[in-house]
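Let's do one together. I've listed all components of the complex below, 458 residues spread over two lines.
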Amino acid sequence: MKNTLSLKKAVVLLSGGLDSATVLAYAVSKGYVCHALSFDYGQRHKSELKAARKVAKALGATEHVVVKVDLKKFGGSALTSDTPVPKSRSNKAIGVGIPVTYVPARNTVFLSLALAFAESIVARDIFIGVNALDYSGYPDCRPEYIRAFQKVANLATKAGVEGTRFRIHTPLIKMTKADIIRLGTKLGVDYSITHSCYDPAPDGTPCGMCDSCILRKKGFREAGISEIR
Amino acid sequence: MKNTLSLKKAVVLLSGGLDSATVLAYAVSKGYVCHALSFDYGQRHKSELKAARKVAKALGATEHVVVKVDLKKFGGSALTSDTPVPKSRSNKAIGVGIPVTYVPARNTVFLSLALAFAESIVARDIFIGVNALDYSGYPDCRPEYIRAFQKVANLATKAGVEGTRFRIHTPLIKMTKADIIRLGTKLGVDYSITHSCYDPAPDGTPCGMCDSCILRKKGFREAGISEIR
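Okay, and this is what the predicted structure of the assembly comes out as:
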């Protein structure tokens, strides 16, 4: 039984942040052979990708593929343009409305590419670290969105037509940031190598004031866990 | 009324082939301001992209954006690898099963990027030249797939959440190749600048023997129209 499980391949979307690192640790703990997938999508900084490489290695992904896809060509987001990233927003303000850091259709683009990768390597399981609780108000993090995409995955593909059931796993979808950090800590994630900030200094130091930094700090505080072990 | 119509923006997926050229002509004829979108996805030859540029210009697209997305990283198709393209298959054989020219999840990747583009330019209409009749057996050309993707589009996006209804237009979905050629000819498409071949010579000359060349020739024959005007 253990052998069967250990042969299960999965594609794990890995941004280099706290959530996707936890997802990778979770998928590995469930016996999946994990193919980590990251994107060089024209984000303002490359600290994310550096972190993703470290995380993939530290948590035992069998490979880490980085695909270039130039979302910058479309613009429309503070994460891929020169629009300032909002700072020092209160916890109440975060999660109300959709912020300028929203990248148009980003998770759909990422999941489509994960699907292409999964079908190519004959994997049927795709893991993504979306979160519908302590999230930033992005529509493509909601359970109904994920269900709709899963339906597309099965209709879109040769594998789906031939009987494979693709499954989009969202183990964090109902967790608070503190829950996520507790789970990852139990699974041995070293969060000091992850990167969450939307607007780091050129050397990668987090700004400490964007929504992502604020949610991260709040999560560690509520989990009662120190960020640096 | 005419002014309102002429302000309607659309994203039109343009491969440089016969079908997407017809779709672009159709969308223009319906009064859409058309933003053509093509992909440099690691296809074996660049004749498609050259044709797409000519077609976009000839048919009056307001802009033509080419986005790089490296599907070659995943492999799994004769169109993005060294697997030979099948030649001289009979009309009966074409459309039975899914051929090696299938690119994993290609239309899902392309439609996702079209959605990202549409949301960025505040367009709600996306045109794609899929065809469920004289097609090559690809699952992501079926009406049920398109419906499922449209649902994803509306759940995935800020625009969808805020009340925009994205629409995926597939004007060719129930047409034969001959119907498509008749429609395009009526709309003034110069098919001599389009490119259909999966495996052209280095100078772009079509092989004449792949499924795509065979379907194209059959279409012109059945439409009673000469390919070169």
